[in-house]
Amino acid sequence: MFKGRITDIFFDLDHTLWDFEKNSALTFEKILKENRIDVPLEDFLKTYIPINLEYWKLYREDQITKSELRFQRLKKTFDAIDAPVSNSSIDKLAHEYIAHLSSFSYLFPHTIEVLDYLTPNYALHIITNGFQEIQEKKLKGSNIHHYFEHIINSETAGVKKPHPYIFELALSKANVAANNALMIGDSIEADIIGAKSVGFHVLHFNAHKESKHDLCKIIDNLIEIKSIL
């Protein structure tokens, strides 16, 4: 299905290999309880998840800073559910969320099986927009760090996916041509359109149950990679 031999596979991390929503929910369960913030976790998460995606889009587009992202996504969530939480408490929660998030290490089903399957025949890498200080902790905590030769992070690259430069930097570090590279990720905008614009082959992991599209092949479970590669 791919024109050209694939030698290198680049994965997104959050929402693709590392189960962000599950690990995030466990982190919020911990810090809300410890800080005695009396809101139903289910109600909080139902409101927070789309707000978080909205603010990450603003962050990718350089419309807000990292600190604004961390504070405002919580502030907007508490306001939306009419929970009276002070700004100082939100600051504390924002800090503790980052501190504890990487201590949870759930992966999507079949992640290890697929990485074991791919490793003998492909060079594997990560391209992530996540915060540099916790992405390595996530990889090590979930025991998948050793699978990847290069980990390209938006903070060290200076730009975020879908900017072409971060994909070009990844190709340069891996010493591979775009037509021999495959990007696998959950974000249509950041991963699929971004990598495709530079010439990568692309595969969409539909973690968010989005509508079908014609940009590339779509998979709903990582195990499907074994029937493609």
UniProtKB/TrEMBL annotation:
Transmembrane segments: none annotated. InterPro entries: HAD-like_sf, HAD-SF_hydro_IA, HAD-SF_hydro_IA_YjjG/PynA, HAD_2, HAD_sf, PGP-like_dom2, Pyrimidine_5'-ntase_YjjG. It comes from the Bacteria. SUPFAM superfamilies: HAD-like (SSF56784). GO terms for molecular function: 5'-nucleotidase activity. This is Noncanonical pyrimidine nucleotidase, YjjG family. Pfam families: HAD_2 (PF13419).
